[in-house]
Amino acid sequence: MTDRVPFWPELASEAQVSIGRWLAGILRYTDEFIGILDADGGIAYLNRTASGRKPGEVYGQPIWQCFDDEWEPTIRDAVLSAVAGEAQCIVVTQGPQRHQLRLSRLERTDGAKALLLIGTDVTESHRTAKALTVRDEQLHLALEASGMGQWRWRLDTNEVMGDARARAIVDWTEEGPAQLQDVMERIHPDDRPHADAHLERILETGTVLPLEARIVVDGRIRWVLGTGRVLRNDQGSVTDLLGGMLDITEQRARQAQDAQLARLQALGRLAGGIAHDFNNLLMAMRGNFDFIGEAPTDVEAIRESVADGVEAIQRATALTDRLLAFAQRSHVPREDQDLREVVTRTHALLTRVLPPRLELTLHLDPNPVPVHIEAAAIEQVLTNLVLNARDAMPDGGQIGIRVRRTFSGPSDAGRPTAVPPGPFAWIEVVDQGPGIPTDAVDHIFEPFFSTKRDAAGLGLASVHGTVRQHNGFVAFENVLEGPTSGTRFNVFLPLRPDDATPDPAPTAPRQLPQPPTGRPWRVLVAEDRPEVLRVVVRYLERAGFALVQAADGAVALEAHQTAIRAREPFDVAILDVRMPHRDGPEVARLLRQDTPTIGIVLMSGYAPSGKPGMASQLEDLQPFSFLAKPFDETALLVAITSSLTDVG
Question: Max CA-CA distance within the chain?
């Protein structure tokens, strides 16, 4: 028995013919040119040529004659190496075309040497590769010019890889990839929570937004801007983050310098405006005092001069209040209000005073808009905005006021960038004027800056100060859509929860308690401004108090110690908040240690929140009374009464 299959020569010959025809068909339609070369590189067979000539025309010729002459040495060397048994792969040209040639040795049964040639047209792929190389080089040059570094974060391994520039920015000198935690530890501690939250948001939403953060390098602070994009797998899950980072330390420094210069310019305008307005008021005061001195017996002239002087003082007080509102230092008593009612009252007043050429419309939220505000201050905000709109439309037009509740989202139109998402009361004032000029946009809320010739320039500055004092936000935009243009001002105030407990109604002033039998109330007055001290002393002397005066905090403490040694402690201390050597709250605290029942009255030209650290000191002093300068005799007596009854 045998497993060999019988061989019929006739069948073998027929099969060879069929296979030959089949291979010929393949060779005819393939995109590559395939040939047989002899050991000297001569062409024995070729299905097609690279030059477009018929294959029969090149039989017997050396293969290098089918290509540009410069490639003859290269092709000769490749033929010799292939005959020796080393397969070769070279790229040559024929005119504008590029071809890849692969040569390998064929083993013939008769022992003769031959080569198999396979050629491929790589012209297009070469162009593509060259274009990619040029693009990569351009990108590299652009990155070098911009100073941007490239990074990649792989979520599966938590590894961060970066190019040389990125590693230099974060001062990463170790070889190989870094763990994300190691990179994040370079972020400044104050910026780390924000950076962590930023990464979490990226993983949750798949959206990458630019992030600015500080990193600490060798004890120095460096600002870095990072941005990028996410890569996803077939299931849509984020697998990688790719991005770039840029050292913006110098840019930040320039921005800080520009901001400082802008603040100095604004301060110059502020100083000039204050000097201008107060010089006018001082002129009125001085002139009237001169008139009184020149005619001491003319009662009617004295009365007229006093009235004019008091009016100048009231105007100075109003100017100071507006300046303090701008500086966010005025004392603002607040109460629970429905903002719709506050705006409705203001709208009714403004409707009566606006000229007939202007139409003032009002749209109110159908639901209550509860806020915790000083109503008069917000009324003044709305009045300033409407009067500003009036001045922008000398030929008439429409001013619209809208009040509504809103939940400000991250991308809401009209929402200032500084406004965090959340519930707000929204006041919108829209006019049909020409809009705010481009060169005034950056200065519109600065004090004493105005686009109107004769305006004081405090209206919008006080609007900004009052709104910020209420923990709110104000912004504006030029309206371009619709048939008319104009300006829209948006005021956002924190919305009070509907179930908040309303403030209690104010109680009537209390009567001054009776002093101990046989003596008047003993009062210590400390004020470093002599002219103010004289006025306060005259008020108190007229009320019958026993007084001791002090020119500063240290003198006040000496007077207190003297009174303690004499066993005649003071009943009330009236102290200026800011004094040399010892300020008012510090003196008050020391007085309370020796005399816990002493009444404390603090007086100042600004609110308790105006001086850094003062609020906590005043909180420790409760109970106490506060007087905002300027004040009159009645306000002083009410404050003394409150201080005595609160500790009694």
Answer: 159
